[in-house]
Prior knowledge:
Elements: E1 15-18, H1 37-49, E2 55-56, H2 69-81, E3 88-90, H3 102-119, E4 123-126, H4 134-138, H5 154-174, E5 177-181, H6 191-201, E6 206-209, H7 213-216, H8 225-232, E7 239-241, E8 243-249, E9 254-260, H9 269-278, E10 285-287, H10 294-308
Parallel strand pairs: 1-2, 1-10, 3-4, 4-5, 5-6, 7-10
Antiparallel strand pairs: 8-9
Amino acid sequence: MNATPRRWNNETWPIAAAMIQYPGILRDGRSVQDQSVEEWQTTLADVVDAGFTELDPTDSWLRLADLSPQRLDAFVALVKKLGLSIPAISTSRRSVIDPIRGDEYLAYGHRVIETAKAIGASAVSFGLFEPLTDAQQKALWFWTEDGAKNPDDPAIWQKAVSRIRQLGRHGEELGIELSLEMYEDTYLGTADSAVRFVEEVGLSNVGINADLGNLIRLHRPVEHWQQMMAKVAPHAKFWHVKNYSRMEDPASGVIITHPASLEHGIINYRAAIRMALEHGFSSPFLCEHYGGDGLSVSATNRDYLRRILPR
């Protein structure tokens, strides 16, 4: 209980805006990587106007680790000028066991850790989920279509453990925590599997990104969020928070989900956060939301978190 001293209160806890609602490729075909500082500022002005003081660049939008040193310095200077900070960096769909690009993504992961240290971030989120399939890209909600699955192969499991451990040791050397994102059909796709995975990695700075929203949105049976949270809470680190409404009809087997704000979805975040705090949780939050004005909903979620976090 309370194994880690709490560093923040409800007013100072880092609660970042995700950039998932901003595409990495622009309508004119250019990449955000190649935008001018002034163009970056136009986008980040939305984050400031929404009342955020922290952001996570989220590498689906901008890969900080692939910027030149000069461009990285320019981005960090812009962030500071706008009154923002970057408490953590999230990677997305760059699995270290990707069957085609796994070696490339492992090297990239090391660069992300080094970049986090260079800019003063405390955590990096990694996942074992792969790029969206064609069917997922065509669907209204991508999670209603099956995506790539981590193979049921002990050798690949061990490869994943070994590579995450390698990244974890790098993070340990630099004082960076690694948070592994829960995601369906990966080795972190259930609470039991996620706990087993991080325990096999066996490093104190490597824990679980308890993004239960990725699981409770599925149109299939899933473990109750409260049971999942009870299992992963002792390992919780940098945390992506989002919520969904979920309707289940036992008679027909029909399951329907839809994005919801944190306080109105099926996960009771007041209870979930208290579970994590009881085990010493002391990491940043990241607010995500799919559909509609995701940034504004994230801002509403940030305000909700500040109401329920310890004073």
